[in-house]
Amino acid sequence: MNTNLLRSVVYIAALCGLYLSTAMLIPAMVSLYYGDEAWTAFTVSAAMIGGISLTAAMATRGPPPAFTKRMGFLLVNVLWAVFSLVGAIPLYLSDLDLTFAQSLFEAISGITTTGSTVISNLHQVSPGILMWRALLAWLGGIGIVALGLFVLPFLRVGGVSFFKMESSDIGDKPFARIATFTRAFMAVYVGITLACIIAYDVTAMGHFDAIVHAFTTVATAGFGNYDNSFAAFDSPALLWVSTFFMTLCSLPFSILIVLLVRGRLDALRDPQIFVFLGYLGTFAIAGGLYNHLRNGIALPEALTHSFFNFASILSTTGYASEDYTLWGPFAVAAAFFATFMGGCSGSTAGGIKAYRFVILFNIIVTGLKKLIYPNAVYSVRYGNQTVDADTQRAVFLFVSAYIFIWAIGSMAMALAGYDFATATSSVITALSNVGPGIGPLIGPVGNFAMMADPELYILSLAMLLGRLEVLTVLVLLVPMFWRS
């Protein structure tokens, strides 16, 4: 492995550590404002991480090498590892009495926008810590969109490479006009966050709750300030506001930028948008009607809760307005399978993602046509674009690895003594970055506080694998990657 490459990776990681140490001053100030003692954990962590990061940055500063696929794979993994470790330190030093495994799990859950938690009695937790969790998720959302729009398409392991912005193809030229695009993305991301804060504030939330929940809604992360999530507010209007923003942030940010900044409605023609909205509407309407007919819940109320909870699952946000597993067996099965699906590429959502379902469906249709007319020439299409062989192979590799990791992880959790529902749903909710699983322990009204450290490490790894599109991590296990 080129030493210049390693030096550059460490340098960039050190700079990111500096940024995160600076960000720790925000929850420190929140704690000081509310008069709790958590500010000491954040200031000590900021000083320690800042000092180490500054020393590492000064020691490794130098001319950067050309950006290659090898550097991209290594950099992505190192950055997310640094984010996770740095994010865990103030949680570990706080008065929450968390083990290191629990602190790391909570930090990874935030930075990957998963939203699972090991903290109980959230209403009694320091506002500074609640703000840190939300800030980790919000910053993680920024990194995830950048990862999905620029880095993963370049590495050919994820992301849609078909949407064209003016004359620049984001997939083939991932860094074309990156400065302009970055400014537009930050403006849209911050603008949506501010709009969500205002909407929450005027609906049913206090100022602090509105800020924290807006951060984790836009990042589709699902961290909240109460153990019973959105059930704490008892507001149908609030549920619809949240449903709108969760759905909006599950759409590709490249398309949102072109739509909001340039006013181009043709950007909405991306096939994955129709697929995502289609299965969201199908799940939500079916779940609402099922709850209405089976349990006698008034139809408007049943649809409100169904749209909110399925938007939460499919956007991989992880909020809950009630325990939807009590609606009946169909709702449990629907929620379980929805956990796999996810939102759109280039959004903060996780899961398998809608564009892969579009490509897989078209591969199957093309294969069936070839059975009927074996000598005919057919191309796999994504909208009006042809899907190349590399992308088709990447989709198959991803889905195969995804299912394989889920199966292995589920067996490991079952070996640890968990029942089938808890074992299988805990791994898929981590791998898809959704948050809640199925069952009384980790379901929509539970959390992961009762799990032992070894299981938390397994789920932490699953969250990182899912967020980094699986193949980006697995490629490091290939010996060829480390050869010069």
Walk me through what this model shows:
The protein has 484 residues and is mostly helical. 64% of the residues lie in helices and 2% in strands. It contains 18 helices and 4 strands. It has helices spanning 3-23, 25-34, 39-60, 69-93, 100-111, 127-155, 178-203, 207-218, 236-248, 253-262, 271-295, 299-314, 329-341, 354-372, 389-415, 420-431, 453-467, 471-474; strands spanning 164-165, 168-169, 381-382, 385-386. The strands form 2 sheets. Strands 1-2 form a two-stranded antiparallel ribbon. A hairpin with a 2-residue loop joins strand 3 (381-382) and strand 4. Helix 2 (25-34) runs antiparallel to helix 3, helix 11 (271-295) packs across helix 12 and helix 16 crosses helix 17. It is globular. Residues 161-176 have low confidence and may be disordered.
List keywords for this structure.
484 residues; mainly alpha; two-stranded antiparallel ribbon; two-stranded antiparallel sheet; 18 helices; 4 strands
Topology (SSEs and partners):
Elements (H helix, E strand, L loop, with lengths): L2 H21 L1 H10 L4 H22 L8 H25 L6 H12 L15 H29 L8 E2 L2 E2 L8 H26 L3 H12 L17 H13 L4 H10 L8 H25 L3 H16 L14 H13 L12 H19 L8 E2 L2 E2 L2 H27 L4 H12 L21 H15 L3 H4 L10
Quickly describe the structure.
Helices cover 64% and strands 2% of the residues. The chain has 18 helices and 4 strands.
| Secondary structural class | mainly alpha
Order of helices and strands: HHHHHHEEHHHHHHHHEEHHHH
Question: Shape from CA axes?
Answer: globular
Record the strand order, biggest sheet.
1-2
Number of helices: 18
Low-confidence residue ranges: 161-176
**Biggest sheet features:** 2 strands, antiparallel
Count of beta strands? 4
Bin the helical content.
Answer: 55-70%
Beta-strand content estimate: under 5%
Rg, Å, rounded: 22 Å
Report the end-to-end length measured between terminal Cα atoms. 5 Å
Mean pLDDT: 90
